[in-house]
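hey can u check if this looks right to u? its 308 residues, i copy pasted from the old doc so theres a chance i mangled smth
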Amino acid sequence: MTQSLQRCPTLSEVLLRQAHDCTNSYKRHSHDEFSFGRVDAGQAYYQKGRQEDRIGAGVLVGFDPGEVHACNPDHGIWSYRMVFLSTHWVHQLQQESDDFACQDYIGFKSDLTACPDTFDRLYQQLQHSTDALSSEIELIEFLRPCWADQRPTRTYRADQALGRAHDCLMSQLTTPPDLTTLSQEANRSRDQLIIDFKRRYGLPPHAYLLDQRIRRARQLLSQGWSIIDTAQSLGFADQAHFQRHFKQRTAMTPRQYQQAHRGHSMPGHSLQSPPFKSLHERTFNAALDAPSNWSAAGFSPDASGRAN
């Protein structure tokens, strides 16, 4: 099994992850960045929102910021490559176009199978090229047919009460409210709250809370916080509890993540909110702190940016 983590040598907004013959599995989770990639070998069980499928070699997938998903080996081992893009870079790119200027951003198409099969060429370009101009042109041209053709079609019933329950949960990440309190905020039964919350946000309240804690943990670790301070600040019972949930969602330990991101903060980002909100956040006014951090393999890059 081999894995690598590499920042694009010419585009600092791009991170590349490659795994060969691995068995890594992930719980359903989300990222702060745009990400897309391809299965190179083996079969994978793919979950994105309420979509579930089995995919094989050559299939291209894409995920928007905040989109709950998981992709795990169906049987045995698998190989894949992923590209992570700074939300700031995508936002700026799309705002330059008249097609996107009136929106926060356009996400990926729900089905990328019809997109041109030039992923290999793009990945090699981003991995090895020393020409920033050609790398950026190659990336932009690859992405153009991958964006959705129109405004996001994911629409939900306007529901301020459910939004209040979400905000209540987000404001108390370390000491979360109980289900009764959330159901009162949402003005519905506890059972109906679980159903509606999962339909809107992709996960039931407790799993959503854990995902948001791990997203915040990635932020803090990449900013130099210690593992014990991060765990305590986010309300985990102990380091073992924190490490177990962290690895389930990132396929690496907090220390590996810390080492991989040491000295590699993304340009234009801090612990403040990004310049726009994700589809869920925008639709329901559920603001999340989401600076650009990478949920990628936990390896310590050397001076060249390659993983040890």
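The longest strand covers residues 14-22.
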